[in-house]
Amino acid sequence: MKGRDLFAVLGGAVVALRASVARSVEPVRVGFVSGGDAKGAAAFVAALRDGLAGEGYHEPDTLILECLYADYIHSSTFCSSSRSSSGGVSS
Question: Among 31, 55, 56, 65, which residue carries the largest CB count within 10 Å?
Answer without folding.
Answer: 65
